[in-house]
């Protein structure tokens, strides 16, 4: 929204909203392409990481059982299973939807920022501080959560 104009027509609001959607979609596409490039890492280290016996949660439960002098024979030494697709396009569909999902997750801070910039001119001053608090805390929590996942993945290696 142009700061010099106080009022906009309905069509100019729709045009501005269209550009918000285009920027969000572009961010999702770029992040999805990056997820496709790193799809081996995403599948091996994030999605299928719990199949490893040295997965952090599995290790914690095993150590807790040993500490409490419980029977640890229930814990597997390895997991033998095969994943099967029941449809011809199953493998490709899983890859595409996984990359798209990771693209949306990675672009989420951008999406929030774009929508905040769109609604910001219509929000009262006392509401802006709550909106900025929400935007900053949501982004902070998003990046802290991502950093914790990266740290746990580095410990696995």
TrEMBL record:
Keyword vocabulary terms for this entry: Membrane, Transmembrane, Transmembrane helix
Entry membrane topology: Multi-pass membrane protein
Main location: membrane
Entry GO CC: TAT protein transport complex
UniProt key word Transmembrane: yes
Top-level taxon of the source organism: Bacteria
TM segment ranges: 20-43, 94-116
Pfam families (alphabetical): TatC (PF00902)
GO aspect biological process, one term: intracellular protein transmembrane transport
Protein name: Preprotein translocase subunit TatC
Gene source species: Paenimyroides viscosum
């Amino acid at each position: 929204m142009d700061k010099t104009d106080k009022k906009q027509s309905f069509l100019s609001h729709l045009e501005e909203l269209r550009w918000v959607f285009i920027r969000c979609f572009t961010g999702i596409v770029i992040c999805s392409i990056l997820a496709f490039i790193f799809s081996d890492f995403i599948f091996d280290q994030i999605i299928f990481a719990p199949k490893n016996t040295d997965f952090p949660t599995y290790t914690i439960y095993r150590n807790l059982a040993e500490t409490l002098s419980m029977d640890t024979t229930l814990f597997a030494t390895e997991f033998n299973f095969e994943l099967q697709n029941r449809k011809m396009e199953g493998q490709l569909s899983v890859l595409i939807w996984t990359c798209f999902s990771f693209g949306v997750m990675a672009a989420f801070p951008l999406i929030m920022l774009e929508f905040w910039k769109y609604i910001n001119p219509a929000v009262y001053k006392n509401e802006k501080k709550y909106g900025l608090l929400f935007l900053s805390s949501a982004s902070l929590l998003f990046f802290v959560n991502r950093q914790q996942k990266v740290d746990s993945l580095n410990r696995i290696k």
